[in-house]
Specification:
Layout (H helix, E strand, L loop, with lengths): L3 E6 L3 E7 L5 E8 L6 H18 L4 E6 L3 E2 L4 E2 L11 E2 H9 L3 E5 H12 L7 E7 L3 E7 L2 E2 L36 H12 L6 H9 L3 H25 L3 E5 L6 H15 L2 H4 L3 E4 L5 H13 L2
Parallel strand pairs: 1-4, 4-8, 9-12, 12-13
Antiparallel strand pairs: 1-2, 2-3, 5-6, 6-7, 9-10, 10-11
Helix pairs in contact: 1-2, 3-9, 4-6, 5-6, 6-7
The chain binds zinc ion (ZN).
Length: about 300
């Protein structure tokens, strides 16, 4: 059986996993990233992970998922909010020339969607939308088994749909995006606006919610209401049968999931509410999603 190396570039680490198309894992390895990496330091780390994985288990092709914006045609990471010194990194050319294997490339949210489609909660969905709830808010669409890329791999940026006109400032530089209200940065940012208190992470925020903290509850309610409008827009645009939530914030899904689903169902066309299903993903590793990019080409 052919084997595929999936490489997932996150804000905190670069992870490589070798799998087959059934999802059997043969090798797994990761190293930390530094948010201040230069292009060269970044490519050196990619080299280390790919080299180490291929030395352990030879693979037939490589799939890579990274934050963007990217250009899937030229294989370039244009920039990244979490690796802020990266600038037009010629990632695919570097890996191809160094390791002489076919290389496939897409953004991390698109890879997460493929991971859920093949190995997680999105299996057999006709039109699957996946929301990645982490530092930011990403989104991907897999329609009849094919991921939707848009022109260069930057489609489905649902985190940057405007819901609140002239609203809170988003990491993208504009105001009122869904991400500015429902993501780690969004929830912590809006909590800070309200209380002038800086929280360390989402866990701390949701602990306050479980303790019934008035301010945290208010910010969560606001976030749910904005996110629900964003999901409404996506549902009316692409008509999914399944919506899957993945990422760190889903650890607290019991504190917001029911309310979010109810709100969405109240504001979409009733016929859509009658069949769209929601689920928390199976935490399929991003590296599995990246490997699917490769096996789709060899064993579709
Ligand atoms: Zn934005």
């Amino acid at each position: 059986m052919k084997k595929y190396l999936g490489i997932d570039v996150g804000g905190g680490s670069i992870r490589g996993t070798i799998i087959d198309k059934e999802g059997n894992s043969y090798f797994d390895f990761q190293i930390p990233t530094n948010p201040n990496f230069s292009n060269k330091e970044f490519l050196d780390s990619i080299y280390t992970v790919v080299k180490h994985c291929l030395a352990a288990v030879p693979a037939d092709a490589i799939g890579i998922g990274t934050p963007g914006p990217i250009d899937i045609d030229t294989g370039i990471i244009i920039s990244s909010a979490n690796l802020k010194n990266l600038n037009n990194v010629e990632l695919v050319a570097f890996v191809k020339e160094t390791f002489h294997l076919p290389v496939y490339f897409n953004n991390d949210a698109n890879c997460a969607s493929l991971g859920e489609y093949y190995f997680g909660e999105g299996q057999k969905a006709n039109s699957l939308v996946v929301f990645t709830l982490g530092t930011g808010l990403g989104c991907g669409l897999v329609m009849r088994g094919k991921v939707f890329n848009g022109y260069k791999g930057n489609g489905m940026e649902a985190g940057h749909i405007t819901v609140v006109k002239d609203g809170a400032l988003c990491g993208c530089g504009q105001r009122g995006c869904v991400e500015a209200y429902f993501s780690t940065n969004g929830l912590l940012g809006r909590y800070f606006d309200l209380t002038n208190k800086k929280l360390e992470n989402a866990k701390e925020f949701f602990e306050l919610v479980s303790q019934n903290d008035k301010n945290a509850n208010q910010i969560l309610e606001l976030g749910i209401s904005v996110f629900a409008e964003g999901i409404r827009n996506v549902i009316h645009l692409v008509n999914p049968d399944k919506i899957v939530f993945v990422g760190g914030l889903t650890a607290s899904y019991d504190l917001f999931g029911k309310s979010l689903e109810e709100k969405v169902n109240q504001i979409i066309f009733p016929v859509l509410a009658s069949y769209v299903k929601f689920a928390v993903g199976k935490s399929v590793a991003g590296s599995f999603g990246a490997a699917t990019l490769a096996f789709q080409h060899f064993e579709p």
